[in-house]
Amino acid sequence: MTKEKVLVIGASGQIGVELTLALRRIYGNANVVASDLREENELLKGSGPYVSLDVMNKEMLHVQVIRQNITQIYLLAAILSATGEKNPNLAWHLNMQGLLNVLDIAREEKLHKVYWPSSIAVFGPTSPRKDCPQRTIIEPSTVYGISKYAGEFWCNYFFQRYGVDVRSIRYPGLISYKSAPGGGTTDYAVEIFHEALDERHYDCFLKEDTYLPMMYMPDAIRATIELMEAPADKLSVRTSYNVSALSFSPNEIATEIKKHIPDFTIRYTPDYRQKIADSWPQSIDDSVARDDWNWHPEYDLPRMTAEMLENLE
Ligand code: NAD
Ligand code: SER
Prior knowledge:
Rossmann fold, UDP-galactose 4-epimerase, domain 1, six-stranded parallel β-sheet, binds nicotinamide-adenine-dinucleotide
């Protein structure tokens, strides 16, 4: 088996920290290079190599790939939905050019594999609201969603035209306790746990009945690794796979938290993020991922809530 050397770009972010640690368990600490624009996350320190890197600087990225003998890249650097609506040009620029830089280098250096996440944000108000299928009407209404949808087609193009083995998942909102979320519309479902423990109260920026697709981070990390380890000939989707785990509203997660913290209260003060949430489906059909690479989620809302509270405490 060829020795793999992995570069994670955006390793200090919400997904990057946990994914880097998981990859280090698989490939060995020295074979997974963490990189980010910002400083190394505390949880990564001492666990393996770290380089400061801007994915927009293609030359610098290319030098690192050659110098470190990189064979796989996980590209996680992006601007998420809520921050993207505040600065659409920046979101488009980073989310597109960052991906194109990585795909070009992957082609030139014949990297074994590339991972790049898309999002449920590709779906828009005209997509089916419930059990949104893999292939359907897709008319995103946020700059983040537009950039993710365009990115999916660039991945497919590089696979079809140049044979770059790039794989992708449309993550739902991700819930985790190790590193903070980075400016998404689903961030409320992380904040609510911190506020419940610290303040016994949460001011929610979405309406109480806003259902969104969600997933606990251990399921997301496992999905990522299982997709990347799947035999190439099993993969029928080279844009990005729907994956699904949970669908709940702010009211439902608050009710679950109250079972552990009975005096917890919640108030609903919707802001600009309500419009973004309303444009996304409430739940996702992931039958293609289940058929192709045997995807199955493990966490339901009660189990995730209990683990989140226990770990944050
Ligand atoms: P995040 O914002 O927490 O982390 C992104 C990291 O990228 C940050 O540490 C940031 O410093 C770094 N970064 C930004 N610009 C960079 C640059 N120019 N060069 C190098 N690094 C740079 O985001 P995340 O939640 O970890 O998301 C990772 C990926 O997963 C993104 O593509 C995101 O769109 C996607 N995704 C996330 C979620 C979620 O709920 N977290 C859901 C769907 C898709
Ligand atoms: N969690 C992400 C966001 O809200 C979905 O891609 O932006």
